[in-house]
């Protein structure tokens, strides 16, 4: 939500600049009226001064008022200005003027202040308030030059004020639409983040809980014949549970911060500890205790992978290993391949030699809700990659025919490749044997 925070600060700065500009224009209009002597006229000065004073008070109070208060203040300012115009009209002589005083019978400050009130009203008030206040303000601004008498000069001024009224109304409505669009975008981003949080929490909890269940089952199986293996299994269960709790605390804490401050800590979704390639190596090391032989093969330079792609690779490996522990019957070997291909693509493939078809009983795949694989497909797609999961040994040769393969490819993930020249030699191999069983 860092971009949202920057846009909010920019909008606030623009709003302050607009307020300063409007204040400068209003002050200039007041000085012009004082210089011309608008408020010193013997007949027109008193109503003009009273109307201008009311509008000035409304203008000063507007930033502190609620939407309903702004609507009431706008209606009040419009009514007072129209009453003043009516008073000027009734006090005019028989020919519709005040003689020499007619030229200064309307000042500059009041129309300017009313235009500012109109702009703020269009920006802030409810539709009902706008329906009441906007017509009153428009009439007050446009009809003031015509209150004394209708002639070519006053008509020209009235048309000019009508143009300014339309511009102020358009500016207020535009600002209203921009703010509404920004709020909708921020809300959509917050909802997307919460979905990502929920998906991340599901991935980590499912992985750790599956490990706990497998270790508990293994401990129970060996408790009678090899009681000395129970203690290491219990220690591993304790460590796995602590890691799951830590992941949940971090994500729930981030959700609380996001709800309190309106933006996520760190400007985005907090990635769990070791969520990149180091996390993949930790997953492989931890899975070695489940009873299956697992091997990690790294091919090509993998140091230039962006953090988002590395996090997606970590989630693919985590979900695949979780599914192996849950659903793969008779699995003896698991292989994890990370390949930095020529052209910048990065591929990850996890395959096992278990009987995936027997797990479901229908020959179509493994049992389970499928939510994890659907979430992985969405995550990989958002990172610009392609995802596949299904029976078969995949593209490598380290696992026998059958089994299950999960793979993801991220084209152009690294900008520059260097190191092994694409000859396919392993940059590193990690292997482990099961500790329980």
Automatic annotation (TrEMBL):
InterPro entries hit by this protein: HATPase_C_sf, HATPase_dom, Sensor_HK_TwoCompSys, Sig_transdc_His_kin_sub3_dim/P
Keywords: ATP-binding, Kinase, Membrane, Nucleotide-binding, Phosphoprotein, Transferase, Transmembrane, Transmembrane helix, Two-component regulatory system
Top enzyme class: transferase
SUPFAM superfamilies, alphabetized: ATPase domain of HSP90 chaperone/DNA topoisomerase II/histidine kinase
Pfam families found in the cross-reference section: HATPase_c (PF02518), HisKA_3 (PF07730)
GO molecular function: ATP binding; phosphorelay sensor kinase activity; protein dimerization activity
Segments forming domain Histidine kinase/HSP90-like ATPase: 310-395
GO cellular component assignments: membrane
UniProt catalytic activity: ATP + protein L-histidine = ADP + protein N-phospho-L-histidine
E.C. number: 2.7.13.3
CDD domains found in the cross-reference section: HATPase_UhpB-NarQ-NarX-like
Transmembrane segments: 12-32, 44-62, 69-90, 102-121, 128-147, 159-179
Ranges for domain Signal transduction histidine kinase subgroup 3 dimerisation and phosphoacceptor: 194-258
Gene3D superfamilies with a match to the protein in the record: 1.20.5.1930, Histidine kinase-like ATPase, C-terminal domain
PANTHER family to which the protein is assigned, alphabetical: NITRATE/NITRITE SENSOR PROTEIN NARX-RELATED, NITRATE_NITRITE SENSOR PROTEIN NARQ
Name of this protein: histidine kinase
